[in-house]
Amino acid sequence: MRVGILTGGGDCPGLNAVIRAAAKTLFANGVDVLGFRDGYRGIIYQDYIPIDKRAISGLLHRGGTILGTNNRDNPFNFPVKTESGETQYRDVSDQLLENFHKLKLDTLIAIGGDGTLSIARELVDKGAKIIGVPKTIDNDLAATDQTFGFDTAVATATSALDKLHTTAESHHRVMVLEVMGRYAGWIALWSGIAGGADVILIPEIPWSLDSIIKKIQQRREEGKMFSVIVVAEGTPGPDGERVVRKRIKGSGDPLRLGGIGQVVGDLIEQATGIETRVTVLGHIQRGGSPSPLDRILATRFGVAAAELAISGQSGLMVALKGNKITAVPLHEATKKISLVPQDHQLVQAARSIGISFGD
Ligand code: F6P
Questions:
Q1: How far is the C-alpha of 117 from the C-alpha of 40, rounded, in Å?
Q2: 151 catalytic, yes or no?
Q3: 260 lines ligand 1 (CB under 6 A)
Q4: Beta carbon of 73 within 6 Å of any ligand 1 atom
Q5: What Cα–Cα distance (Å) separates residue 198 from each residue in 114, 215, 230, 348?
Q6: Which one of the listed residues 11, 73, 114, 138 is annotated catalytic?
Q7: What is the dihedral of CA 154, 291, 159, 193, to 10 degrees?
Q8: Of 2.30.30.100, 3.40.50.450, 3.40.1550.10, 3.30.450.20, which CATH number belongs to 2-148+290-333?
């Protein structure tokens, strides 16, 4: 039996731990393992490395992915250079499936977010055997209670908030931290609570400047001359529009968000005269060594995906439900993203301890 592994979409801490766990489980069952480079591109160009015991040695704590990844290339809309040097987008999924058979792959383990898993679902519909593994720091896949990478991103954002607190206090400033999360506010919500933010702005809860200022002034009246605010990158600005940093051609989701932190910071400074500084945490949230929790979740997912592949299953994504690893159909897994419900228990707990959501 031969199984391929690829990592697609934005990287996150724990990808290597999944590769390691899946490979170890597959080796133990005498399965041959190929690792495709840079997502689906690796199958299209037959660009792969044999995964053996040496290839997976020392991987557990290593951030990123030894296979490389990308969040642009979609085999159903793939950039191809024409003879005139122009780039055209074409459906190369048939070529991908041909290579799948040429390489005698029984099953592919695709580790990715909603983009990678949606492509996996379409390829399964065309006859490929694929098991999906959910990853993303955003934690926005509804079919699993948690994705690996999220815990590490929250730890990084929390540590940034801890550091911003000390400098905010010294200078009597407002500090704004913009964190990732795409259209969901999970990273902002969790790190905001863990890092003791005074205000948390998330895409799911509409905010007003007046309400933020009220919170800052109330703190000053209590003698707390500084405030720390965490803003999720997907939070709409005062005009109701998301702040877009970049548009990436050919990407499943071409919008790259960023800049709302500065918008909020400028508005606060203009309205209050209080010195305000803005930090954009950016890709630091995606880098580095996975937390113990992410290593464990990644390992459990890797083992489960390999076991499903060995038993000949396909069209499934491994998922965490409660404290159990289970499998859900890829069709279901890619249907909807998970946003923060406005009445989520964590939102309520945050409100109870005086955190403002700017509403
Ligand atoms: O989905 C993961 C994520 O890090 C988002 O939080 C962020 O919006 C996006 O990817 C950034 O993408 P890129 O790496 O292309 O800048």
A1: 11
A2: no
A3: no
A4: no
A5: 32, 8, 8, 14
A6: 138
A7: 40
A8: 3.40.50.450
Residue 99 CB partners (closer than 8 Å, separation 6+): 43, 44, 46
Residue nearest to atom 14 of ligand 1 (CA): 10
How do strand 130-134 and strand 107-112 relate by DSSP bridges?
Answer: parallel
- The residue count for the chain: 359
For the chain (359 residues), the mean pLDDT of every run of 10, in chain order, is 97 98 98 98 97 96 96 90 91 97 98 94 97 97 96 98 98 98 98 98 98 98 98 97 90 90 98 98 98 98 98 98 97 92 98 98
Q: Rounded to the nearest whole angstrom, what is the distance from the C-alpha of residue 256 to the centroid of ligand 1?
A: 7
Query: Residue 208: is it exposed, middle or buried by C-beta count within 10 angstroms (0-12/13-18/19+)?
Result: exposed
CATH 3.40.50.450 residue ranges for the chain: 2-148+290-333
Closest-lying ligand 1 atom to the alpha carbon of residue 257? 8
Identify whether the C-beta of residue 5 lies closer than 8 Å to the C-beta of residue 108: yes
Token pair of 43, please? 């199958």
In the chain, which segments carry CATH 3.40.50.460? 152-287
Domain spanning 152-287, CATH class: alpha beta
pTM of the complete model beyond 0.85: yes
Do 225 and 193 touch, CB atoms closer than 8 A? no
Strands 227-232 and 199-201: parallel
For ligand 1, what atom is nearest to the CA of residue 181? 6
Pick from 52, 39, 32: which is nearest to 6 by CA?
Answer: 39
CB of 10 closer than 6 A to ligand 1?
yes
Q: Is 242 in the pocket of ligand 1 (CB under 6 A)?
A: no
